[in-house]
Amino acid sequence: MTDNTTNIENRYFKDLNRRDYIQKAFEIIKDEGTKGISIRRLAKEMGCSSTCLYRYFKNLDELLFYANMGFLNSYLIDLNRAEKTWKNVWDQHLGVWECYTRAAFKYPEAFDMLFFHENSKKLGTAVKEYYNMFPENISVFNNHLRIMLENPDFYERDYEMCIQCVKAGKISEYNAKRMNHMECTLYMGYLKDILLNGIKECDIENRVKCFVEDVKDIAEMYADDFKYTEKLFGSSEKERL
C-alpha cells in the first residue's frame, strides 16, 4: 500500500464514529424516509469511503435500526409530560399506550423496524447504547417505564404495565396476561393497517383516541377494579401543551 493510499484512508476514517453515522442517517430518513438512504450517499455526504460504514456497523440495516431510534424521542417527551398527570395505575396503563401509539402512528415505518424486525431482538442493549451516545435525547421517567422500553419482547414490554395493575390489586395475574395479549394484538392490527394504507397527519389523533378506547374496553372486561381519569385522554395536542 502506498503512502498516498494510507493518507487517503486515514482522512476517510478520521473523526468518524457510530454517532456520526446515526445522526446523518436520521436526518436523511426524517426528510426523505428510508428510501433516501444508501451507503454511497452516506459516504459522499460524510466525506469518507463506502467501506468506512462497515467499521462501525454490521450492515446498512443495523445503521437504519439505530437511526430510527431518533423517532422514539417524541414518544419519550410525550410520556414524560403525561406521567405528571396520571393519578392511578389505570391512568398510567392507558396513558403509556396513548403516548406510544401517538408516536407509532406518526412514524409507523420506524416503529415497525424498531419493535418487529430482526434487529429488535437486541432492542434492550441498543436503547442503552443509543442514549449513551445521545444523552440529550433521554427523558427522565420512573424505573419500570425504563424497564418496559428496554425489554426486547413486545408482549413482555406491555406486560410490565399490566403487572403494575396486578400489584395494585386491580386485576388478577391470569386476567392481566389475557389483557396483555389482546392489547398487543390489537395494536399490531392498527399498525399493520397504517403501514398498508397510510394515514393523514390530521387523522392521527383520532386514530389514537380510537385505539385507547379499545384498550379501555379490554381493560374493563378483565379488571376487577377499573377506574381512570377520563379527562386525561383524547385531548388535543394544543390542550396537552
Protein described:
With 241 residues, the chain is mainly alpha-helical. It folds into two domains: 3-57, Arc Repressor Mutant, subunit A; 70-231, Tetracycline Repressor, domain 2 (Orthogonal Bundle), CATH 1.10.357. It has 13 helices and no strands. It has helices spanning 3-13, 18-32, 39-46, 60-67, 72-83, 89-106, 108-116, 123-133, 143-150, 154-167, 173-197, 204-222, 237-240. α6 runs antiparallel to α12 and α9 packs antiparallel against α10. It is elongated.
**C-alpha end-to-end distance:** 60 Å
Q: Tell me about the largest β-sheet.
A: none
Mean pLDDT across residues: 85
| Alpha plus pi helix count | 13
What is the fold named in CATH at topology level of the largest domain?
A: Tetracycline Repressor, domain 2
Number of domains: 2
GO molecular function, one term: DNA binding
Organism: Peptacetobacter hominis
Protein name: TetR/AcrR family transcriptional regulator
Pfam family, one: TetR_N
